[in-house]
Amino acid sequence: MEPCEFPHIEDQLAPILGRHGADATRLLQILRDVQDHFHFIPPEAIVCLASHLNLSRAEVEGVAGFYSFLSLTPQGEYRVLFSDNITDNMLGKTELMQYFCNKLWVEPGKVSEDNLVSVDSTSCTGMCDQGPAALVNGWPLTNLDNNRLDLISELIRIKKPVAEWPEMLFEVRDNIRRPGMLLGDEFEPGAGIRAMLARGAEATLKEVDASNLRGRGGAGFKTASKWTFCHAAIAEEEGGMICDVGGNPERFIVCNADEGEPGTFKDRVLLSSHADLVFEGMTVGARVVGARKGFLYLRGEYRYLLKPLEAVLARRRAEGLLGENILGEPGFAFDIEIHLGAGAYICGEESALIESLEGKRGRPRNRPPFPVTKGYMGRPTVVDNVETFACAARIAEKGGAWFAAMGTAQSTGTKILSISGDCARPGIYEYPFGVTVETILRDCGAEDAHAVQVSGPSGTLVSWQEFGRRIAFEDLPTAGAFMVFHRKREMFAAAHNFTHFFAHESCGFCTPCRVGTQLQKRIMDKIAGGHGTPADLEELKHVGHILGTMSHCGLGHTAANPVLDTLKKFPGTFERKLKALSFEPAFDLDGALQTARSITGRDDEWAHLL
Amino acid sequence: MSEVKKIRIATCSLAGCFGCHMSLLDIDERLFDLLELVEFDRTPLTDIKHCSPCDVGIVEGGVCNAENVHVLKEFRKNCKVLVAMGACAITGGLPAMRNNIDLWDCFQEVYQYEGGLEGGQIPNDPELPLPFDKVHPIYEVVKVDYFLPGCPPSGDAIWKFLTDLLAGREPKLDYEQLHYD
To answer: What is the DSSP letter of A405?
Structure first.
């Protein structure tokens, strides 16, 4: 389909540009609005935006081409993206997507002839406990089955606006199965800030230090150290920095809600039901490091949370918990702005997230300098996980000793796990650190479990022999994902799915990751297609080594984990798929001649390769 | 002194332009030194049609049709060491630019729409090699032992590669010789 022409693009973009104050750091937010309006980013819009934002055409197109939810070619008026996590697949995603495509006479990845609908796959949408899931024009659909898809295809056929679809299609449940101190205990908005103001900012930092709170995004860096570094960061280039009267540089607090790791959905629940706790933690952090502005970077898949979260922010402003002179404290000013992502796993990496916040491609920066000294707009910035801020609010309220009493020596407090896969009760479980995999499996009703993918594809595959291991930074660190696999599941399928995920999500900046993830995917495709040999397994290990040692950032470093773990712990699942030969072609030789056979009508001996 | 048994080499060009073979000839007078050490089996130089057991097989070009597969498999079966020479053998190269074009569109463009053609029929003679829907690098069809990059690799690079191999060393190109264009 040829792109349409847009002679009135200036007029059409004016309201969008106006809404964002023609601010180049808001380019991603602007492009999201353009995508919503036109169902793609027209080339004319790129030229127009470039001139208004004082950017080059390449910069705008570079951003537009980077994010999955933005499209440079026209998409259907209804864009349906099926979540492609392994848990969705285990619940029948592939068959359902085919069923849906057949119903609407559309091919996956293409736009229907009447431009009405396009259907494709997307990376995990964070609805693993209520899958198979999908997004329609960015809004989440859950618990899909044939009946629901019948209804959805009918709604599309009669062109009913998504806003008027039945609400039950969009119902997202919290499924909190085991609440703890974060999810269970009552929280009075403002309690954390009041306790902090009574105690003083420095004393509060001491409490956070005493709590031994470590980052909940998986890496486990000590939060008090991060806050201290940010607070201590001085203006390096005096002229370039915006400083307050005391000569302190402007600082920022960023909450990382780009929960992209497949199988992780605990931040979604924290933000939908405990947003006060998160915002309170950000406000406490702001007071400690001396920040006046905060950002919540919300992954594009969770845009449905934007309005409710804006409402929470508005209420907190009205209650004097955000804004100028918070809770009557003179000079204590802080406010929070929400930025939406647009489908890029890499933006969960803190420096890529900051790039994205600045309106650029989500490309990880060289570190050092770390964000605590040079982050958003080059200023000292704290980037913490949603759950970390929630913990910080509790610590401000109840003290460090109370927090440190839970968990283990190296891992204090509780951890929220998002459990999905083969278990009777998938959902959200909060445990004190130190809990064994076995206990968790019993609680969630996972019978005959064979393996658990802890902390998602970039984490660790735990086999049934290791179910005595513990969730803790000392043993099994995790960002929260906990995907259970039954004895009858083929573990190869999970590893195969994860290689596709990484190949899609590699940002393309460094060659080892850009090429390595593709090679890994192709070899896994070859094995899946029945063409694998022992040489391919060796090649997987070789590629895995290069990925792990040569990549620019954590994405590449961990992209081979699922393959290498599965090769080590479940070698049989690979070996059963291999052909017992020393070498096999990478593709079906005879099949690759079929097109030419049908064009020429030949069927002679030389037209076949056997 | 008894005569040392010569190393037997076979070469062929599949979906390539013979440019790598031209570059092989660019080793110039060193060809005489080479012939002291090696003898040629099937090559475009000897015009031998089929490969017999050899020590080294050197393949130029990617795999674009069924006949390429037969030749390549014959090489793999007969050669102890198989070398992919040049960009096309290693990645598919220039011929692989057709991979983004539908094969049916290719055929129509060439045999039906091109001006000056009589009848506009798509040939279906069994003697013509049947094309694949895509052009493939040779490592996707057989196991390849060495890759000698360049489009083409320079005569010096080929000479360095061959002399290393003949001397029983692991072939290693100098920084200046290793290039992909």
So the answer is: T
Q: Is B107 on the interface with A (CB under 8 A)?
A: yes
The question of ipTM being above 0.85 is answered as: no
**CATH code assigned at B27:** 3.40.50.700
Among 3.40.50.10420, 3.40.50.1010, 2.60.40.420, 3.10.20.600, what is the CATH number of A414-487? 3.10.20.600
Q: Give the CATH class of A490-610.
A: mainly alpha
Q: Which of B70, B125, B130 to mutate to test the interface with A (most CBs of A within 10 A)?
A: B130
Contact between chains at B132 and A599 (C-beta distance less than 8 A): no
Query: CA-CA-CA-CA torsion for A276, A281, A282, A285, nearest 10 degrees?
Result: 160
For β-strands A117-122 and B54-60, DSSP reports them as unpaired
A605 contacts in chain B (CB < 8 Å): 126
Q: Does domain A178-404 have CATH number 3.90.226.10?
A: no
Q: How many CB atoms lie within 10 A of CB A424?
A: 8
Q: Which of B103, B124, B142 sits opposite A595 (nearest CB)?
A: B103
Q: What is the pLDDT along chain B (181 residues), one digit of tens a residue?
A: 456 789 999 999 999 999 999 999 999 999 999 999 999 999 998 989 999 999 999 999 999 999 999 999 999 999 999 999 999 999 999 999 999 999 999 998 888 887 777 777 888 899 999 999 999 999 999 999 999 999 999 999 999 999 999 999 999 999 989 988 8
Q: Was domain A78-161 assigned CATH 3.40.30.10?
A: yes
Structure-token match 């009589």, residue found: B118
Cα angle at A335 between A329 and A339, to 5 degrees?
165
User: What pTM was estimated for this model as a whole?
Assistant: 0.85
Q: What length is written for chain A?
A: 610
Instruction: Find the CB nearest A606 among B130, B133, B140.
Output: B130
| C-alpha span between B44 and A88 (Å, rounded) | 55
Residues of B in contact with A601 (CB under 8 A): 124
Domain limits of chain A? 9-66, 78-161, 178-404, 414-487, 490-610
Read off the pLDDT of residues A310-347 as tens digits, 9 standing for 90 and up. 999 999 999 999 999 999 999 999 999 999 999 999 99
Q: Nearest Cβ partner of A599 from B104, B134, B142?
A: B104
